[in-house]
Structure formats: C-alpha cells, structure tokens
C-alpha cells in the first residue's frame, strides 16, 4: 500500500500568503498543514509516500519536509509541471505507484478520523475504490456523492445546482490499480483538467466495486483564511500539550493550556490558552488570548491578540487595540501611527510592512 499526497496548486484562496509559499506549508498550531496528512498516513502503517509538487513551490516543500525520516516514512517527490487536475496528478505519479493500491490525500485537508479504519475496510472488502464523504450544509460548493443505502457509490456531481445529497467529497480516496485504466479513458473537463470525479464516475460505469463511507469526526479544508483559523482553533483544542521551555518572568501569567518554545521570553504579559508560542520569540507587555498560534522568532510588544495566527519572523509593535481573527505572514511588520481605527482585522502576506493611521 502506498500513499499519494497532493501538494501542488497555487493556493489562490489564501493569497497573499501563498504568493511566496506553498499553501500546504502554512502552519496550523505551528505545524505545516501538509505534515498532519503525512503523520496520519504513517500512523495507518503506510510509509511509502509520494508527494506531488509544483515547479513554483516544490523546492520549498522538499526543503521543509525532507526525506520522510522524521515521520518514519520514505518520501518520493513527484513533479506535476502544471495544475492539470487530480486525475492528472495520479497519471503523473503512475511510475511511482506501479501496480500498488494507494490512498490519495489532498495536502491542505485535515480530518479527525483515523485512516487505519478506512484502510481496513478497503482491504477487507477488496474494493476497487473507497471514497470518504462528510455531510455539509452547503453541498453546492463541493463535489457531491449519490450513495445507495448499502454504501455503494452510485454517482458523483461536481458543485451541482441541485445536489442529490449533502455528502461532500473530503479529498481522501483509496484506490486499487484499476483507477489508472479509468483515468486513461477520460477526457479533460470544460476547465481543461483531468478530474478525479470523472475517473471515479468512469469506474462506476464499468461496474467497479466502489463504496463510500462517512467521516464521523471533523473535516477541515484550510483553503481560506477563516477555515485556517477554524482549523487552528480545533487543533489547539484537541491536541495541544502544555509545556514551558522558555523564560516567563514573575510579572507574567500563563493561564490554561499553553505551549512556550525554547529561548522564548515572556515579559510582563498574560497568555491565556489554548495557545502556542514558538521558539526564540519575545513577548513583552502583551495579552495573548485563546486560540492564538505564534510562530518562531516572532516579536510582540505592547499588543493584544486572540484567535489569530502569526507566522515566523513577524513583528507586531505597539498595537494597543486587540487584534482578532487575523493571519499575519512571515516577516511581516505591523506597527502603529499616531491615529488608528478602533477595530482591526487583517490578512497580511509575507514580507509585508503595514503602518496604521
């Protein structure tokens, strides 16, 4: 059994953060989104992993993620020269996949359920494909499945105006090698891409044994800012282990579950968890509220924030109003001018410098 993780694409919905980096490397609770998928796959016992990368961000993904040894896995990087669809990514990866069954996992997705239970179902029932679904409130925004009472997948519709169900594709698929034949038989869609939904529909038409199963836990698509913040909230709620490895002076308060990294200084500040602060940070005269993630080498002076994500190397200085629901990119600098608005809400890209007035 192998795994194929998709880490290409342009991440247009997370711009400006993704102008200068891969969307799958944007951190959730100070860990790249991509790594959660790798860890979930390795935990299911699948250690031969291929990662689809793009020419624009592939080197960054490789440098950050490495050869897989930190995850107990072996990673092979596979270049997809252009974003020509999920089925095209499988086609490009066919030399790596060979005749092995595999799980395909979209690299910007997070799921709570353990993959091992779905792998067991796929193998025990000797399926040609197993498609993971989740009930959603707005099915018209997703690929939607029509499923028989016995779990058999009857059909797929991409972003339908009149959805046949509220069961959305979550971006995790288990495939037998027969999927390669189905992909070879489809044509590019109206947007010029080889769609995995078309390949699955082709396999359904060929009477392949395809089942669908529903997730019972949460599913997070981190493609937009608010989704990223919600993912950060849930991960901090679910998995944060409190620890203090830095220095906290006597005038500071640490309340609740908080993780503070190595060589970080907390001076005359209050941090209320769940929250995480990376390594080599300086936080002085600040209030850090719940559901905040602060990356490595961040400087926060005379500022307040909560429910926000601050990326590596950013500086937030003398902002005496509370920053909420915000994502501040790597090396961004935020400081205050003599006049400023009463409410602040940001999405600030890498290398930005913002002056408030």
List keywords for this structure.
single chain, 357 residues, alpha/beta, Spore Coat Polysaccharide Biosynthesis Protein SpsA, Chain A, UDP N-Acetylglucosamine Acyltransferase, domain 1, 2 domains, 7-stranded mixed beta sheet, 7-stranded parallel beta sheet, 33% strand
CATH architecture of the largest domain: Alpha-Beta Complex
Number of separate structural domains: 2
Estimated radius of gyration = 22 Å
Q: Report the end-to-end length measured between terminal Cα atoms.
A: 57 Å
Predict the CATH topology of the largest domain.
Answer: Spore Coat Polysaccharide Biosynthesis Protein SpsA, Chain A
CATH first level of the largest domain: which class? Alpha Beta
Write the CATH homologous superfamily of the largest domain: Spore Coat Polysaccharide Biosynthesis Protein SpsA, Chain A
Q: What percent strand?
A: 25-35%
Structure classification: alpha/beta
Helical residue percent band: 10-25%
Main sheet attributes: strand count, strand direction, barrel closure:
7 strands, mixed
> Any idea what the shape is?
elongated
Q: Strand order of the main beta sheet, please?
A: 5-4-1-6-11-8-12
Per DSSP, the total helix count is 8
Given as residue ranges, the uncertain stretches (5+ residues, pLDDT < 50) are 11-15
Taking all residues together, what is the mean pLDDT?
90
Number of strands: 32
